[in-house]
Amino acid sequence: MPILTIDDTRIEVPEGTSLLDACRQAGARIPTLCYLEGVQAIGACRLCLVEVEGARTLVASCVHPATDGMVVHTSTPRVRRSRRSVLELILSEHDGDCQSCVRNGDCELRTLAQELGIDSLTYEGDKTRRILDASTPALMRDSGKCVMCRRCVTVCGEVQGVAGLFPQYRGFSTVIGPAFAHDLAEVVCVQCGQCAAVCPVGAIIENSAIDQVWAALDDPDKHVVVQTAPAIRAALGEEFGYEPGTLVTGKMVSALRRLGFDAVFDTNFAADLTIMEEGTELLSRLRRALVEKEPVALPMFTSCSPGWIKYMEHYNPDLLPNLSTCKSPQQMFGALAKTYYAEKKGIDPKDMVVVSVMPCTAKKFESTRPEMSASGYQDVDYVLTTRELARMIKQAGINFDRLPDGKMDRPLGLSTGAADIFAVTGGVMEAALRTAYEIVTGHPLPFPNLHVQPIVGLEGVKEAAITIEYTLPEWDFLRGATLRVAVAHGLANAQKIVDRIRSGQGEYHFVEVMTCPGGCIGGGGQPRLTSDAVRQARIQAIYAEDEHKELRESHENPDIRKLYEEYLGRPLGELSHKLLHTKYVERERV
């Protein structure tokens, strides 16, 4: 293990450690713009320069290995002058509109300028060519603000396997964007927002629905309801100074009421409903395959993640029959809000506005899909990200930390712990297994605390096998069967599973895919910047929420049972099929 001296501190690090990580372990604050933990270290921005004794020049610490005997200085006059000059040159090209930029409060470029003491521009010159792209429901691009860090290029290409963004042209004329200067809507883009999540400035942001939501709330003729995804409650607090992973469910509910929503509901309710429909669909496919010997599309893939759905439509259209026909919880909720809930309240659906708060920018796209109108109207009218909700709370002058804890409204607000874990990678699978296993065997899932350990954690691809040793009479055909499942998060990892299935190496029955790293807790609309440490903190909070609930399996939710008794009839029934299920279409790969 190399031993080196950093700012007079002797430190030992594992072989292969970068100088940047070694310096940070020694307590030094090293500025970066292009670096992305665990994904990208290219030395492009040159802000991480340090001085190494014996080296002819300053070195970029993110790409320089820590070696034995190295003596490093991180804050000499030469280092400070160089970093400042580099940042001043970046600022000279940056067409930032800082006074009105949505990233004003969390812009990494502005923060670094303050840290390095830059309060005026030394260099005056041409600005980066501005291209504005608002062509998609989810994202907006402003190339004038781009600092060429290439984080978005790496995330889109390596983490998501989509490769929709590239550096175009050369030198000062370089623009980061789709090939041939197309808009995002003209190329393959799953609208996951991971590019916006890692962008250090305001070059890629969500396409905001804040103004439309305010207009709806201010309209006395509209009945405006809101649903909140499970991942929001473990991340929203970060926008108000709370530590990552702090649960703020009650304060979030109170804030939404103060914003003026007529009812505050929980997407978790629809997550429990999704398990009832999706679990029944899986068992139906298994029965048809094993008993009736029908040709059935197996493995069945989950369909809750809209970025994943769009990815399959572009890249693997031959496997679209393998997708569950279930809509996502967001869209199930919208359909029920404008039918079941509207009938119970005596409200004309045309006078109702359904707003979602989601960790995901792709949900904005999903809500506009033409097939998402089972109620006769657009089922979900507007989607806000976690960041947008935080901005609305601040715009309303609400002191978030002083709010009392509120409770969700009913009938669409009660949920189980199984619904909470939809927020994390492996959570949808575990929730489905909790219910499906008990339906088949009459007993709870045989794992400690109901957690299926092989599919817990941040490993990119996870697998588990569950042998069904005993069954209820109706399910005797599954006795002795081994149910094989797989879980992936990040679309590049999902493609690995698809490739295994195509090659015959992966013989699965059920596969869960989450578009974003870590699942929804790492979504493109969550507070920035989401590192693995932040993901882990949010995951722990979500599991704690699950474990502290009295009801932890979706089929135990009494309001779900009531919904079937009063309205839907049964899972996979005629009305359920109309409101809660859909199909998907092949899309071009441009």
Shape label = globular
Terminal CA distance reads 48 Å
User: Overall pLDDT, averaged?
Assistant: 95
What is the CATH class of the largest domain? Answer: Alpha Beta
CATH fold assignment of the largest domain: Fe-only Hydrogenase (Larger Subunit), Chain L, domain 3
Number of strands: 18
CATH superfamily of the largest domain: Fe-only Hydrogenase (Larger Subunit), Chain L, domain 3
Model description:
The chain is of the alpha/beta class and 590 residues long. The protein has 4 domains: 3-75, Roll (Ubiquitin-like (UB roll)); 91-206, Alpha-Beta Plaits (2-Layer Sandwich); 219-269 and 330-402, Rossmann fold (3-Layer(aba) Sandwich); 273-327 and 416-580, Fe-only Hydrogenase (Larger Subunit), Chain L, domain 3 (3-Layer(aba) Sandwich), CATH 3.40.950.10. Helix content is 34%, strand content 13%. It has 18 helices and 18 strands. It has helices at residues 19-25, 77-93, 108-115, 151-159, 194-198, 210-217, 249-259, 267-290, 306-315, 329-345, 362-368, 386-395, 417-420, 427-441, 491-503, 532-547, 558-568, 574-580; strands at 3-6, 9-12, 49-52, 59-60, 71-73, 132-133, 139-142, 166-168, 175-177, 204-206, 223-228, 263-266, 300-301, 352-358, 382-385, 461-467, 482-489, 510-514. It has a 5-stranded mixed sheet with strand order 2-1-5-3-4, with helices on both faces. The chain has a 4-stranded parallel sheet with strand order 12-11-14-15, with helices on both faces. A hairpin with a 6-residue loop joins strand 8 and strand 9 (175-177). Helix 8 packs across helix 10 and helix 8 (267-290) packs across helix 14 (427-441). The longest helix is centred in the middle third of the chain and has 24 residues, at 267-290. The radius of gyration is 25 Å and the shape is globular. The two termini are 48 Å apart. The mean pLDDT is 95.
